[in-house]
Amino acid sequence: MSEKAFSFLPMPERSSKPRKNGLTMCLDQGMGLTYTEDLLSICSEYVDVWKLGWATAQLQPKEIVSKKVELIRNHDISVCNGGTLLELSEHQGKAEQLFSELLDLGCDSTEISSGSLDINSDRVAELISLANKMGLRVFCEVGKKLPEDDYEGKEYNRLLEKFIGAGADKVILEARESGVSVGIMDDQGKPREAKMSDVLEGIDPNDVIFEAPRKAQQIFFLRQFGPEANLGNVHPTDVISVETLRRGLRGDTINDFYFVIGDRHLKKQGRK
User: Fold this and answer.
1) Each residue of 12-28: pLDDT tens digit?
2) CA 106, 108, 110 angle in degrees (round to 5)?
């Protein structure tokens, strides 16, 4: 690993890849190959999962998508489809074909969801098992895209538990790319903590990826669950910004996570 700029300054430690927790999951909305290569040259060590958002890859040449997946995988980053592509495939009886093509493209994971098109939770569990058997790591998203269709907290909790039990590597708590009005987010994008308590009752937060496209949401989850919280729907250009939040290298979390300098740490602990 190359030397970082300003390396004379100490920096808080973070888990290194392959990470079990502290995952950053990016939402790629259709970025080109060269742009992706340039971006990864500065931030690849901070990205754990790269989602080819929605069905954007279906609009791009297969050769380019394959090269892009190879590039990302060469940086030790998991690559998966967006959940919409799975839903479209399942409703045409082609979910297994989707899993096969993901493998053919070089992907190592899949996102399974039922946010736009209904898929029975028993069938979702079957798809998780099928994907695992085919060698794909599974990220299973829970939640609806439209607020009027969304679940109550207890139903979120039941589904999270069910899909973890079915073999999902992580379950994703829906917030969309907007970060408002679904999941545990209110219409202003603020987490509803009472609902979050119902959603996570008996659930290990380390098993959950919290979709948090907004800075304030990222800060909330990091403060709530620590710098190794799993965050999703992070725009690729925000990766380094999120990593500074995780390490306390930014005013928003410097008092939470920047424990490198001994004197500062002792003062925070009330020992000096």
Assistant:
1) 999 999 999 999 999 99
2) 115
- Structural domain includes residue 89: yes
Residue 35 inside a domain? The answer is: yes
**Cβ partners under 8 Å of residue 194, min gap 6:** 153
Residue bearing tokens 């403060």: 223
138 phi/psi in degrees, rounded to 5: -115, 130
Query: Residue 86: which CATH number?
Result: 3.20.20.70
- Structural domain boundaries enclosing 123: 24-268
Q: What is the DSSP letter of 237?
A: G
Instruction: Map tokens 């100490």 to a residue.
Output: 10
- Give the model confidence (pLDDT) of 120-165 as tens digits: 999 999 999 999 999 999 999 999 988 899 999 999 999 999 999 9
Asked if residue 9 is part of any domain, the answer here is: no
Sequence-ordered strand ranges (E) for the chain: 24-28, 49-52, 78-81, 109-112, 137-142, 170-173, 208-211, 230-234
User: Is 96 within 8 Å of 133 (Cβ atoms)?
Assistant: no
Contacts of 234 (CB under 8 A, 6+ apart): 24, 25, 26, 27, 212, 213, 218, 242
Query: Using an 8 Å Cβ cutoff, are 38 and 10 in contact?
Result: no
Dmax (CA) of the chain: 65
pTM for the full model?
A: 0.94
Count up the domains in the chain and report the number: 1
Question: Does residue 10 fall inside a structural domain?
Answer: no
Q: Are 90 and 125 in contact (CB under 8 A)?
A: no
